[in-house]
Design a protein that fits this description.
Layout lengths: L7 H14 L2 E3 L11 E3 L1 H20 L4 E3 L9 H5 L2 H4 L1 E6 L6 E3 L19 E4 L2 E4 L9 E4 L4 H6 L1 H8 L5 E10 L14 E11 L4 H18 L7 E5 L11 E9 L2 E10 L3 H10 L5 E2 L7 E2 L2 E8 H12 E6 L2 E6 L10 E5 L4 H16 L4 E3 L5 H10 L4 E5 L1 H6 L1 E6 L5 E5 L3 H9 L1
Parallel strand pairs: 3-9, 19-20, 19-21
Antiparallel strand pairs: 1-2, 4-5, 4-6, 7-8, 9-10, 10-16, 11-12, 12-13, 13-16, 14-15, 17-18, 21-22, 22-23
The structure holds adenosine-5'-triphosphate.
Length: about 450
């Protein structure tokens, strides 16, 4: 159907559409920006909320074996000592001797991408955690880290979750929230940022069952990417070889995607054994064991499977997958083919003319639709064709046109984003009709 090129020009088109239509803006733009920081605009925040809400439904509220938390971003720094982040959460940093560009040694192909020279300093480990101070003194004792992942809170809160929910194994703890990494080379739009959002699950299990649970979660991740609308041929499930895996992980699968800038990570799935809970037991002195309620003698530190999803990368992939161009009556149009559940605006209400005899009832209709819980946009400026194009460009599934006939026949025209077919629907059946079509 679509013959949109998937090369770097697709990223340019997308970044420009995102800015023009209010999905994603450059952060702090009026002050010249802040390198690689991005703000989600009015449509972007709706899109992001829809993605997070669907994830929550699929992985938390529709399952009987999941609970969730919302932990503080700032945690006791001992957490990051226990987890190993203080000692080892680093990337190898080199500096170009000619232009002083700072680069990641593991991503370098022998030549400085900034100036083309080939001489670099020795690589040194650069810790990726962002640091700040709590309270009025700025000394070592006041140092805290902005969390580099949401995951550790699920281990740190394990005892409290277990005691308050009386869960039996296997069960999972989920969390959606911000994470921060002082990335050496952020970039590629929202792909790699220093402040981003994660949706993570720690699924606690018995050691002997790890392989079955790992397969289950791999299957669930495949269902999720299908729901996002990702074409299977653009996905790669890469088993990470022993030498590249964290030493405590017995298996890691990276879910990779063919971005216009290459095949790179979208999500990760890792079997982390009982390493984290074990380390927190050791460092905190708290007991982080599970006791079998049917056999009190069976007491152990549970193992864990960790499916980890980036919110921003989900959004980027959803945008890339939705982007399409086609031709209507000899004119080209851009259309975002979001799955209906994801579309930031579900219905646009468009009076055929700005005259108050049409605009007043049309505004009333728009309000009725808002109160029926649809995300609605009302637009009365410019020609109806231009207004359709504007809605196509933000992926609105349905446009409802209120015309002069509507005043006498009590019906409106509903236009479909993908087929562009138009049907006449009586006003008193409109809510039901749209609900059915969106379902
Ligand atoms: P990468 O190899 O791309 O740096 P990672 O392996 O360090 O990623 P994880 O630590 O596994 O990433 O983090 C889990 C998920 O969080 C990733 O799969 C990705 O979706 C997201 N993520 C990680 N780092 C960033 C970032 N800097 N910007 C946006 N999303 C990120």
């Amino acid at each position: 159907m679509s013959n949109v090129s998937r090369g770097p020009e697709l990223m340019e088109k997308l970044v420009s559409l995102c800015k023009r239509r209010g999905f994603v803006f450059p952060g702090s733009e009026i002050y010249g920006g802040l390198a690689n920081s991005w703000d989600y605009g009015p449509l972007g925040v709706e899109l992001k909320n829809n993605i997070k809400m669907m994830w929550w439904k699929m992985f938390v509220s529709r399952r009987s074996d999941m609970v969730a938390i919302d932990a503080a971003l700032l945690m006791n720094p001992k957490v990051w000592e226990a987890s190993g982040h203080v000692a080892t959460f680093s990337d190898p940093l080199v500096e170009c001797k000619a232009c002083h560009a700072r680069l990641r040694a593991d991503q370098l192909e022998g030549v400085c991408p900034t100036c083309g020279k080939k001489e670099f300093t020795e690589a040194r480990a650069f810790n990726l955690m962002l640091r700040t101070w709590l309270g009025p003194t700025q000394d070592d004792a006041a140092v805290v880290y902005l969390r580099p992942e949401t995951a550790q809170a699920m281990f740190v809160d394990f005892k409290n979750v277990l005691e308050t929910t009386r869960r039996r194994l296997p069960f999972g703890v989920a969390q959606i929230g911000k994470a921060f990494r002082n990335e050496i080379t952020p970039g590629n739009f929202i792909f790699r940022q220093r402040e981003f959002e994660q949706m993570e699950i720690e699924y606690f299990i018995r050691e002997e069952e790890w392989e079955a649970h790992f397969e289950h979660w791999l299957g669930e991740m495949k269902k999720w990417v299908a729901l996002l609308g990702v074409k299977p041929e653009r996905l790669h499930y890469v088993d990470i070889p022993d030498e590249d895996r964290a030493f405590y992980s017995k298996r890691t699968v990276d879910v990779e995607y063919d971005y216009p800038f290459g095949q790179k990570e979208l999500y990760g799935l890792a079997y982390r054994t009982n390493y984290d809970l074990g380390k927190h037991e050791e460092h905190s002195g708290a007991e982080l064991k599970y006791t079998n309620p049917d056999d009190q003698k069976e007491k152990f530190v549970p193992h864990v499977i960790e499916p980890s999803f980036g919110v921003d990368r989900s959004l980027l992939v959803a945008l890339l997958e939705a982007y399409d161009e086609d031709e209507v009556d000899g004119e080209s149009r851009v259309v975002m083919r979001f799955p209906y559940w994801m579309a930031p605006v579900k219905v646009a209400v468009l009076p055929l003319s700005k005259k108050s005899e049409l605009s007043e009832p049309a505004q009333k209709l728009a309000q009725q639709l808002r109160e029926a819980d649809f995300a609605v946009e009302y637009d009365e400026t410019q020609s109806i064709g231009k207004r359709y194009r504007r809605q196509d460009e933000i992926g609105t599934p349905f446009c409802v046109t209120f015309d002069f006939d509507s005043l006498t026949d009590g019906a409106v025209t509903v236009r479909d984003r993908d087929t562009m077919a138009q049907v006449r629907v009586p006003l008193d059946k409109l809510v039901t009709e749209i609900k059915q079509r969106l379902a």
